[in-house]
Design brief:
This protein is an alpha/beta fold and 222 residues long. The protein has 8 helices and 8 strands, in the order E-H-E-H-H-H-E-H-E-H-E-E-E-H-E-H. The protein has one domain: Rossmann fold (3-Layer(aba) Sandwich), CATH 3.40.50. Bound molecules: BIS(adenosine)-5'-pentaphosphate.
């Protein structure tokens, strides 16, 4: 690989960002930074950030930009030199995208590719209502498309599976609305930048994976 790439994975709630992140991390040696996971860890640990973020997450609205940008700034400050990066769920607003550009500029890096996964709303609602996640490794399962071998138990590490507090019908409705109004326009920002690749996420996971690999090819070829 010619250089340490900076890769963004975007898409609405339930598009399959978390599902595909494991493959991208393992195949391209990227460091996975998922803002949703970091926030849920902060909530579980009862930190100040977690206390501030919890009500936004539970309602399905965005956590304020200053908190998110501060959190990513800490990650950027500790990023090992030469490490490839997969940002999952960030940026979600234009202000976050501009802040990211500034942070990467300081590190003499740029966004190499934005993998924008698209899935119709009715499919997203069905996926999220059937999602279970491993408490230990965060692997997502699905009662329809990816059931665990033993109900309630992670195939990979035996961790307990749980349903997220923001996967209720009400919060999912809000999350989809917030995505359309605040996050979908960020795709336009990256289209102008020339780094956006749209991926059809409404197909079996292995076909989504193949489309992502094709989109990664120019990046890994240098
Ligand atoms: P976050 O944790 O980022 O959630 P999200 O964006 O809503 O996305 P999800 O994790 O729900 O979906 P996913 O795309 O990862 O889907 P998955 O792979 O699990 O954010 C949560 C909250 O944190 C936000 O609402 C906000 O409050 C806050 N937040 C986070 N980042 C923020 C930011 N930058 N700014 C402000 N606030 C922020 O797949 C879903 C299901 O579908 C699974 O069951 C899976 O098995 C199944 N599935 C996946 N792919 C397929 C397929 N191809 N076919 C069939 N089923 C599939």
């Amino acid at each position: 690989m010619a250089h340490a790439p900076t890769v963004l994975i975007m898409g609405p709630p339930g598009a399959g960002k978390g599902t595909q992140a494991g493959h991208l991390v393992a195949t391209y040696g990227l460091l996975h930074v998922a803002t949703g996971d970091l926030l849920r860890e902060a909530v579980a640990a009862g930190t100040l950030l977690g206390l501030e973020a919890k009500s936004f997450i539970d309602k399905g609205t965005l956590v304020p930009d200053d908190l998110i940008i501060g959190m990513i700034r800490e990650v950027a400050a500790e990023l090992p030199e030469g490490s490839g990066l997969l940002l999952d769920g960030f940026p979600r607003t234009r202000a976050q995208a501009i802040a990211l550009d500034k942070m990467l500029g300081v590190l003499d890096r740029d966004v190499d590719v934005v993998l924008d996964i698209r899935v119709p709303h009715e499919v997203l609602i069905k996926r999220l209502s059937g999602r279970w996640i491993c408490r230990t490794c965060q692997t997502p399962y699905n009662v329809d498309s990816r059931p665990p071998k033993v109900a309630g138990v992670c195939d990979l590490d035996g961790g307990e599976l749980y349903q997220r507090s923001d996967d209720t019908a009400e919060a999912v409705g809000t999350r989809l609305e917030v995505y359309e109004t605040q996050t979908a326009p960020v795709s336009g920002y990256y289209r102008d930048h020339g780094s956006l690749v749209t991926i059809d996420g409404d197909q079996p996971s292995d076909e989504v994976r193949a489309a992502l690999d094709a989109a990664m090819q120019p990046v890994t070829a240098g």
